[in-house]
Design a protein that fits this description.
mainly beta
């Protein structure tokens, strides 16, 4: 439940929404109405989007955007944001098991370190126009959606925070007036998968309607537990061999929505959504399994758990003030609470006794609490004018608190405090950050001059003010023996105060003055204007071309010791065209882009002389991303549909001097205090394959009985890509692969309102790496480390039954 402060804030936001009297859902309702009116006449259905904060046809929106309707998501068996990546060009999503979070990359630009409160993402996520700082809580199950819009390239002028690479806006289905309807579905599959979904729409009156939607997804873990070795004297009870496995899913979400439309020019939507995640984190697996073991298995000593709860309130009010002016108020408040535990070493080696043969480390989030609220007010011209104008104001506030422990042992959990196990293998850490505060506010405008019926010029400007505070945070550590008395460090428990079990502030944490910092206290303010200039032209009534130049900005970051990194900025250039052919049977879009980043923020692990290792956000001198994208949808016949999405891209880092934690032989340049570092200039950014291609094909077999059988295949191909910025050879790289999903759906004849579907995902059963981890602690070494990785799910299959009522 939301705490008292957030209840007050939420109530205030709702009251403000009600006060901004009057509104027809000018941005949401037309989209749904247009989709409903699209007749199956053999043409590609028109898609209405709100990427420009106005309702426009996708083909008339001068922006690189992929829009998928709820029906298209259902056809492609999309159940989460990771599934979306195979339907949109230049879009990647990776799960990070050590914090159980989802990280997004677009056009090769992302930040794999944006999994804690210390780093910001490059791709912003919105639900119904409300910013969600963490993708894992943002309608994670993609249930009861009207559409999803994936906007590529900087979106800072209109969409604001952390959208330097792009933005994703998920638009939920809204309550409908004058129509009682519902649907339910159940899915059963391998790994004991069970999925349930339900929706019911109830018009209470001509002016008030309710809608309830529920989704639940669960499956057993993909990672089998390896049996402990038959080593004399080794306690087999120290190993986990049963219970919940890693890479399990157990997620549930419920959304309650209400719509009030007292007049034709006023509408307010209000929703409450609750999400629960009780699955398990993903596991780092040895890329080269030990003899006799499977890839999808691990020798585990730390039982997994994950508990995350996200409660969100969102509201939107639209008011058609008069025939010339529309006003919109969008606001939301969210509370996230969580805890998790993860075997950070993943059984990289086999213990040789209870106290020797490798390091065991537990990454454990004892508690995390995030609360945020945001509000936007925009005023815009209504209808098409000589100048279509929009002005707005935005405010965002987030408070974060986290306690993360990393207890360590030698061999098994019996082997703590070992002083002969190799320095600094058993350094323990406890990161305590009780109060981090982020505030952001902005003013913005975007105006389009309709020079003629076929030519338009758009200009946009946004000024953003950001402020971050850290208070009371300390990086505690215990280096094998307690600094105060020389006694062995005891493995820290969630109930321990680090100061009471021999932990002290880590002297390797350096403050702004260059001296050891006893805490992470700090504050910093930044501000930056960003702008957009765009021209678009109707080459014919069916083809539009556009050119744009825009800038982006992401605020600086407060890191350990109160040190801050500078903001990241970019300038992006783009040429694009889109349109339809053959009377609407084919729609297409293409774009060419070049993005030049300055002060590119990237999280790199830093190991200090005493062995402590921290993931810190640093500023590279810059980075570049360039490429070509294309999309095509074709109704080849009334019963055949083809979808294509293609991307060619290149990325390159500019200068960043840092120590390579994966392979010290690359560290050949002199660093501070006699250390050695390397320059990452020229390296490619992670998750940026040079070429990718998505192909979807669906055919309807109309049987003589009137029933229909519809097979569909989606295939994704991409060339090799690096998995971290160090580009450290084959283990650090995902080789080229093809991954296919296949479904076949049966719909009976007549007015029977049910259908059944069989599906297979990852038909080839490919092992596709998403992130890498390297272990060079004893008995491994820097010249012969153990490389691990996380992977996309193996082959899954099942059946789904859906009924409408």
């Amino acid at each position: 439940m939301l705490n008292t402060r957030n209840k007050i804030l939420t109530t205030s936001l709702v009251a403000m929404a009600a006060h901004v009297s009057g509104a027809y859902a000018a941005d949401e309702a037309p989209a749904a109405q247009a989709a409903a009116k699209a007749a199956d006449n053999g043409n590609v259905a028109e898609v209405i989007v709100t990427a420009t904060k106005r309702s426009t046809s996708l083909l008339k929106t001068p922006l690189a955007v992929t829009a998928l309707s709820g029906a298209a998501l259902d056809d492609a068996h999309v159940k989460n944001l990771e599934d979306m990546t195979h339907l949109s060009p230049s879009f990647q999503a990776t799960s990070q098991g050590d914090h159980a979070v989802l990280l997004l990359t677009m056009r090769g630009i992302g930040n794999d370190g944006a999994k804690t409160e210390q780093a910001d993402p490059e791709v912003s996520v919105y639900v119904d126009g409300v910013y969600s700082p963490r993708a894992e809580g943002a309608t994670a199950l993609l249930y009861d959606m009207d559409r999803v819009e994936v906007m590529r390239g900087p979106q800072g002028t209109l969409w604001g925070r952390n959208s330097t690479a792009g933005a994703v806006n998920m638009v939920s289905a809204k309550p409908k007036f004058g129509m009682t309807e519902g649907s339910a579905e159940i899915t059963l599959g391998n790994y004991n998968r069970t999925g349930t979904r339900f929706m019911y729409n109830l018009p209470v009156s001509d002016t008030f309607a309710l809608r309830v939607a529920y989704a639940g997804e669960s499956h057993n873990g993909y990672v089998d537990y390896q049996q402990p070795p038959n080593t004399p004297g080794l306690d087999k009870n120290a190993f986990i061999t049963s219970g919940d496995k890693y890479n399990a899913q157990d997620q549930k979400a419920l959304r309650l929505s209400a719509a009030w439309q007292p007049t034709g020019n006023l509408r307010t939507d209000l929703s409450f959504e609750t999400f629960r995640d009780d699955g398990t984190p993903s596991m780092n697996l040895n890329q080269e399994p030990r003899p006799g073991e499977k890839l999808w298995s691990a020798l585990i000593q730390i039982a997994p758990y994950l508990h995350r709860k996200v409660d969100t309130i969102r509201t939107r009010t639209d008011w058609n003030v008069n025939q010339d002016i529309d006003l919109a108020f969008i606001a939301g408040a969210q509370r996230t609470d969580g805890a998790m535990q993860f075997d950070a070493r993943g059984g990289y080696t086999v213990p040789t006794s209870n106290t020797t043969g490798g390091v065991l480390r537990n990454t454990r989030i004892n508690a995390e609490h995030y609360t945020n609220a945001s509000a936007e007010l925009n005023l815009k011209s209504s209808g098409k004018k000589t100048v279509d104008w929009l002005v707005g104001a935005y405010v965002f506030h987030e408070k974060a608190a986290i306690r993360l422990d990393q207890p360590a042992w030698s061999g098994t959990q019996v082997g703590y405090g070992c002083t002969t196990c190799g320095w600094p293998a058993l350094t323990q850490n406890s990161f305590v950050q009780p109060n981090q505060d982020v505030k952001s506010h902005a003013l913005f405008t975007q105006d389009t001059w309709n020079v003629s019926d076929t030519f338009r010029i758009t200009g946009g400007l946004r000024k953003t003010w950001d402020e971050k505070h850290n208070r009371g945070g300390v990086n505690f550590y215990c280096p094998t023996t307690q600094p105060a008395n020389g006694k062995p460090c005891l493995p820290i428990t969630p109930q321990d105060d680090p100061r009471n079990v021999g932990f002290v502030p880590n002297p390797s944490v350096i403050g702004p003055d260059g001296k050891p910092a006893l805490n992470n206290d700090g504050q910093q303010k930044w501000s930056k204007p960003t702008w957009l200039l765009k021209a678009d032209y109707d080459v014919t009534k069916d083809i539009m071309a556009y050119a744009s130049v825009s800038t982006g900005y992401k605020s600086g970051v407060l890191t350990d010791g109160g040190v801050h990194t500078e903001p990241e900025t970019l300038t992006s250039y783009e040429l694009g065209a889109k349109g339809k052919l053959m009377g609407g049977k084919v729609t297409w879009a293409t774009s060419i882009y070049y993005a030049d980043f300055k002060g590119y923020q990237i999280s790199v692990p830093t190991t200090f002389p005493n062995g402590a290792s921290f993931l810190l956000t640093a500023n590279a001198k810059g980075a570049t991303a360039k490429g070509i994208e294309g999309e095509l949808t074709a109704r080849l016949t009334p019963v055949d549909t083809l979808n294509l999405a293609m991307s060619l891209q290149r990325t390159e880092m500019d200068t960043l001097l840092t120590a390579d934690p994966n392979n010290s032989s690359y560290n050949t340049l002199p660093g501070p205090n006699g250390s050695k570092v390397r320059d990452l200039k020229g390296n490619e950014l992670p998750h940026a394959p040079h070429f990718s291609l998505n192909v979807g094909y669906q055919h309807h077999f109309n049987l003589d009985s009137g029933a229909r059988i519809s097979p569909r295949i989606n295939a994704h191909y991409e060339t090799a890509s690096w998995l971290d910025v160090f580009n450290d050879g084959a283990p650090d790289r995902q080789k080229a692969y093809t991954r296919s999903d296949f479904t076949v759906r049966y719909k009976p004849a007549g007015d029977k309102h049910w259908q059944v579907e069989a599906f297979v995902q990852n038909l080839e059963n490919k092992d596709i790496k998403t992130t890498v981890n390297i272990v060079n602690l004893p008995p491994a070494a820097s010249d012969r480390p153990v490389w691990q990785a996380m992977y996309l799910a193996p082959r899954t299959y099942g059946v789904r039954l859906t009924a409408d009522f």
